[in-house]
Amino acid sequence: MSSLMHKVIWTGMVVAVAGCVSTPPPTLQTGPDAEVTVDGLVRVDNAVVPVAYRKPDMDLTGYTRFMLDPVEIAYQKDPGGVRRSGMGFADENFALSSSQMESLRGRFQETVIEALTQDGGYELTTEPAADVLRITASLIDLVVSVPTEMSGRQDVYTRSYGLVSLILELRDSQSGEILVRAGDRRDPTRNTSDRLAAVTPGLVRSDVDRLFRHWADLLRERLDAFR
Questions:
Q1: Looking at residue 51, which CATH number applies to its domain?
Q2: Which of 21, 108, 121, 185 is the most exposed place for a label (fewest CB within 10 A)?
Q3: Residue 18: inside a domain, yes or no?
Q4: The domain containing residue 163 runs over which residues?
Q5: At 105, is the secondary structure helix, strand, or coil?
């Protein structure tokens, strides 16, 4: 058999095997080595986000409405002390203005509400009840790697806009019992190469909103799965 034919057959076998491999479903850890939090949540393996915990006896089937707490945002460290280095920046520590912070908070909250209410989804309410799930979302450890005030006369290049972590908690609205806690940390930059790329305020906003939509859609998918 020629080396070329051997290579073709081997490649086909690899593709066929890879196609049969599926992602294992999320499973709750059990046994003496299971990770358990102080509030009784157990680690979930193979979750759709890197860190997920839930109550072992969790049942979300009765929840048809939800309350959404105001979104909290916190920096990883206090902004300041940024100095320019070539076309990039030596310290990733830019500060958002108060209006930019409010815009970020509002856009995330609106994205979550849209994802949960569309297509026969969940009703939004402000009052606790037996069928109401309370959702608390926090955007923490925020690192801003690009100037928050960009001049049209100055080109800005970067490899990354920064990083942000989402911490999400689902709890019973009446008792306050936490049922799920999950966390994910991401760079919203669409450019995945290691090269410096030009950046504009519009591009940053678009990529950040895309990340928000990804998180909101994941939340809706998981709630639907449990329901």
A1: 3.40.50
A2: 21
A3: no
A4: 27-226
A5: helix
